[in-house]
Amino acid sequence: MRTIGAAVDAHILTGETSLATFVRFQLRDGSFRTLTSHDQDITIDGLTYLSSVGYNPTGFTDRAEMAPNTLDLEGVLASIGLDRSEIVAGLWDDADYFIFETNFKSPVLDEIKQASGKVGGIQTVDDRFITELQRLNRPLNQETGDRISKRCRDVLGGPRCLLSLAPFRVHSTLTGVTDTRNFADTARTEADGFFEQARFRFTTGLNAGINGVITDATNANPVVITSVGHGLTTEMKTYLDEFTGDYVALNGTLIDTNLFSVTVIDDDTFSIPVDGTSFAAYAANGGRFSFGMIRGVKKFTQTGGLIEIDRPMPFTVANGDRYTTHRGCDRLANTCITVFLNMINFDGENDVPAEDEVRDFTF
Asked: The whole model's pTM is what?
């Protein structure tokens, strides 16, 4: 049961209410994005909640069960300061949200609390964004432990796989683009299917999110990186790659948990929590940072170097965009043995019979 103040209680009892809904998001960089269902902008405690024609918070119900709520925020993206590049850059990942109602004629912050929690997945549809709102009790709705599986439960290079992707990684440049899912790289000569089920990320171009060239890195603790006008904010997680020499240890693995959380020093430098005192002096060698969306490779064809990814990229893909991917893994034991020589870290139960094998067994 929600409790409300005496003033708003009396206002509701009049039967002619002037209540409006207010939605507040706090992004990972500490900034706010705000909305209101009222037809005018309203400022509460120094924060302005924006209104736009056509905005409507629809489909939200604070359900008693533990399933996540879905909130369809219908409105013009530019009117609330939301840019798709913020989603690509990860600023909305696990952002905090708070929804409340108040009398817009005499607004009080968080007066009638409706819901609060974390932002889950975001989908962009034309000029709308649809976001899944996870409540604070979401850990209670998650599975605990692992299910039995003949396939490895980890991803290649993941925390249980422990395989270094360095020998299997490719950095290359697109030579042809059909659409935001289908590209070509004529430099690729690998066999059909070689990259299928691998992870794929752009490191330059519009789909790389916030990205740039690294011109210097200190051999200190922590490592301080120089990239002019980097555009990062403290605690943002970024992906480093294309280093050589001692600094190859900083190269990412396309696994989200291995992204580096940065501490911004100034507009051109930031540090990462890595002890580089054993590294040799840095020589400018093309290191880059980026935080773009990860996709999976659905199909690879040797003839023409054709790459199809599992989902479209949010922005235009262009010839000359650089990307990184790696050899694919079907997560089967035989592949782990014959291709990656990593069966000791296979995270599955290869010898457990499948359901149809058990059903067909005759005593």
From this structure: 0.61
